[in-house]
Fold each of these.
Amino acid sequence: MLNDKVELAFRNVEEVVTREELENIINSGSGVGYYGTAPTGPFHIGYLVPLGKVSDLVRAGVKMKILLADIHAYMDDRKTDWGMLKVRTEYYFRCISLLLKDVDIEYCVGSDFQFQREYFEKLYRISALITVSRAQRAASMVTRMREPKVSELIYPIMQAIDCDALKVNIALGGIDQRHIYMLTREYFPLLGLNPVTCIFTPLIPSLRGPDVKMSASIPESNIQVYEPEESIRKKVLRAYCPMKEVKSSGLQYTNPIVAIASLALIPMLGSLRIERDPSKGGDIVYNDAGLLERDYVEGKIHPLDLKNSVANALIDFLKPVRDYFKTRHDLILEAYPEEVKKGLVPLP
């Protein structure tokens, strides 16, 4: 049983710092972890990767918290205006809680503790140790940094302090968060604080291919979690999905459809059925992403079969979110009025 839990904790990760620490935490049953997200742009399927890892860790015996980092959404070059923080936080909570409706999660909101005296004391102390260049390196992958604001340099330092404030020993994030969470490894010991064990997940590339960022401003690059069925199917069928290609030589996913299957659907659903014509061997069910990727590289799965199967699975899996927001257009319109007006945010 313990080996099964360890395998769950390690699957679909790009890097763990350190592997020995995580294995010890899982085996001892002492894990308390968190995944944080700032309520900025519309919620899309890229978030299914860390949420799938949250689910894995809960099943591995880790007590997981999800931080709705509302203050961070403003600190990142005001991606969310101060007056919009409350409604976007509610919107993110609804999306996440519907996707993880059967998973035992503790939800936290940044503004509930980030104004406390103890939090600021640690923020001041660690800020005096971190150089501007180190803060810039930490912020560069996650904040805009177009005309860098002071808030964008404070952002990663706050994110590190969140680990202590939430009393966790595991921090979960995408690989783009690496420079931030490594601050806890470098500077926490200097303050007498315990560094956290870091789990970094791969990122799903844009539906338009690895050269285009998955962005809310490019509708065809992503799928929002409450999109209409016909929109999901259309986007998946048009997506970049080259025959026999899964990853680059650097092990980064380049095929978004394979990445969605491996990093999101199989972890969240437990398996994925690839529907094929009987003349081509008939349907095949994968509960191991590695086997699916191997068969795709060997040409045993045709891109169109994979696309149709992924579209069907996404449509079914996202149904609870879609059904909820069919009755809550008001929440989407309040959270993203301009984006809806511009056609960047679909209504289910």
Amino acid sequence: MKRSRNCTVKLKTIAIIRLSSLGDIVHTLPAFQALRRHYPDAEISWIAEAAGAALLENFPGIDRIIVFDLKARKGSIARIKYLIGFVRRWRRQFDLVLDFQGLIKSALLSFLLGGSRLGFASGNARESLAALFYSRRAVYFPEERHVIYKNMHLLSLLGSSSAAVEYPVQEWVPSRQLSEFLEQNNLHDQGWIILNVGGGWPSKILSEKQWLQIASGLKDDYRLVMLWGNEKERETAAAVSRQGGVQLAIFMNFSDLLYFINHARLVISGDTLALHLADLTRTPAVGIFGPSSPQRNGPLFSESRALYRELTCSFCYRRKCDTMSCIRDIVTEDIIEAARKIDAQHNRNAD
């Protein structure tokens, strides 16, 4: 069936490819929401890796979440067999495929699935050769602008020009385990400030000493909870909890994490999932930035604030660094001051 370039033909089945990472998936949700509003009757599927699929289960409006588990296969032969089987299962199942990942592997997957394929221009794709696999490419989008708007810009190929950032949200309910944790630590009524020690990249992570300084500067006036997501992060969070006398969080699944952040008083975090979920839930946050740009990846919620130390090498997007000066030289007193100001302003707005 031939489609006109202004996309007047009704689309029945649409697939989004955004395999990872978790923060990038959150930054793609507003584009999904705009797509859902543009095509309210279409069946929209989302292809993601296992962790991303688990996160996406917590957002309404996605008709089908398809796990693309290529990474879990060991060895080239196993991966090729998996890819062949995946393509056989889903080929020609979608009228339209949108690749928000912009990698050669995601673009190739879109090509193998067949149908019309939309993606970024070569200057916007994370790997420029990915653009060769698309049927149509969006015009160049300034990379210094926020990635959420970049993702929404891809929908311009479909005639969607909405600039409103909306997330698909629902009421998240705490598990019994989280409810007991909140009850046992008297966290239900007073609200709490989350100190999230995670960062994904080594270059995004504050030191244990820095977190201890932040906790010491806030613990007398606020209920603090140290948040972590893996065992290495737990070691840091537990050390700060033990030395600083603040609460250590339990491990949370994505549903509990959304509830916990949604009901928090404030979130202090590096450029990682917890910060982006704070933006999604409109929870005030202090975002701490090192190698990544707050203009491109920072919170959009008006009550949040991004802190960074500008250097000649700023915003290099390197995962590792010999000096890590951009993150290590951030003044913790500035973080404490920003948290206090944001909380005071938020309380005035709530009155």
Amino acid sequence: MNCVVIPAYRAAASVLPVIAAIGDEIDLIVVVDDACPQGTGLAVSAQCADPRVVVLMHDENQGVGGAFLTGMRYALGRGADIIVKLDADGQMDPAQIPALIQAIASGTADYVKGDRFFFLTNAAAMPAVRMIGNLALSFMAKLSSGYWTVMDPTNGFFAIHGRVAELLPAERIAKRFFFETDLLHHLGLLRAKVVEFPMRAHYGDEVSNLNAGRVLLPFLGGHLRNTLRRILYRYFFRDVSLASLQLVFGLALFAFGFVFGLYHWLAAAEHEFVPTGTIMIAALTLLIGFQMLMAFLNYDISAAPREPLHPYLEPLSPKTGQETAPSTSTNVLVLAESDEPFGQRSQQQAKR
């Protein structure tokens, strides 16, 4: 079963056309109202007659990541094989969903995400501030996830295989604007295969809720934390290889050469030359350390997962005790905030 999850916040005017454009390849559409002040979920419930649609409503705002994870839990409970995230603002074309999920359906990928930078026309249409921010975040996401060929890590148009989704630690994934890149980090820890799908994006008059100044430091901190966690887990806990030694000795030699050279340069009296031997020691250790770090980086880039993970996992089966939705009407489920793992949460449910 294929499912689309639509996180909805201040999207009462745009979400209905998005739902109407979703094709027959999708069996279940889950709209998650993230405590929207416009009552987007209630508007969908009242105006949408599509029998595939289920509306889930948060009683507290949890962010786009929290809304998607709620929808993902529900979809997994219904036995979804492929789960697609689609934004409610109309920026993503639902007609591209069949191409997006093709790699997962054919068994060649675990996770597929849209790439807005593949087409130059997309780059030209993207607001300049958004483009610069995305490019900077792209490099940091490569470091923190290990997916060096992913060019658009912050893109929210993606699909994931249900068996891989069940392995994700939902309680540890960021719930707000750091969600997409943090999700990539956790997929990297699982060694899931990620591929990108060339997509065309439409930039209209939608207003982003992202405040760049407010999230800059949390983003930097999150990427630094994830980078350290990934390297420790990948190269020291899960496996120790030549690359592990290159990283350790490379960092040590580079740091020694830099500190040693800087100390003697600062300690030298004015008009006094630093001895040639001292310069050679600093330069050689700095260069050797740099070369070893470049060798580690080259290995890390080439070590991205090449085989999909989901064929080796047990098939999904619908969970007992999970909520189900009749196929003849749109349901509204009022959910309390939950950080429990997939398939193990409790909720409050009410039909309206």
Amino acid sequence: MIIQPTLRLPRHLFRSADRAARCFSQSAPARAHKMPELNHDKDMRRDGIRGLYSPDGIAIAWVEYHGMLLNKLNFMTAGGEEENWEPKKLLIHYARDPTNAAIFNLASMAWNNHFFFKGIFRAPSPKKKDDPPPTPPPMPTTLATTLASEFGSIQTLRDEFLATANSMFGPGFVWLVKTKTGYNSSFRILPTYMAGSPLAGAHYRRQPVDMNTQNGDSAASLGLSRAELGKMGVPTNSVGAFGAQSASYAKQPKLAYGGVDVTPLLCVSTWEHSWLRDWRVGGVVDPNDPDGVVGPTGKENFLAAWWDRIDWKVVYDLMQDSATSRQGSTNNDRAFAFNRS
């Protein structure tokens, strides 16, 4: 006797199963998303980044973690048309699709983490261990003048930026961005939590429920019926202005309505894998005041050391390109191509 199962699964789950089936059907799936090579990559992996990362710290924060993101991204996209899409294109595309939140999170995190490391100054390792590490070049005068005009002084920018990053309770990134609003532009400090993206195209994201963690039973605890869960992410018609199935989709600008178009110039990661290995927790509890901590924490020390290793030439180049790009543009200029992969 054959027993027929009575459980009905939401349609979007079959789509996820289909992705997995495509992966296993390939004996040796192509690795479309490969580990990017940073400048002086071999020196960095062997010796770390003096004053910021030990070799073990680089292995965790860059080699292993970023490799894990790309491996999962290869698995999730294998066999589909998007397997050759760059992380930036993936994250913007799936920002509108709550049933594929996992792809958005992986692509966005890969884009963010790559941006973070590409903004750190790296140079060939000193020939002798006792030699001081190479010093990053000074901030270009034009950039220094512009930022000082916006924030009052470079010291004020530093203090505000690091205070914002240190006060983030939980993982994420803190960005220095330049807004693009016609003839006027300004600089802002922007925090994003978890794998959130600063890119304007990702601000369409509307995902009240993480579909990667839901099934019929768990959704019920959130007040969703099985029918409602099954409909999430499934289009009902082509009317309206939003969504990949809308009739006007092709005509929509990349900039979300009410959103602000920005060019990311600089970011720092507050994820613990980015700093905990080398900088530890830090801080000392005052025995006379159990609620007080004496001395800077490991996170504070890491942020201060990171600021001293910023490659301001990279920031300057991105700022210059943002001045010539159009609002909502995806031109293949340096600011766009800086972190396409």
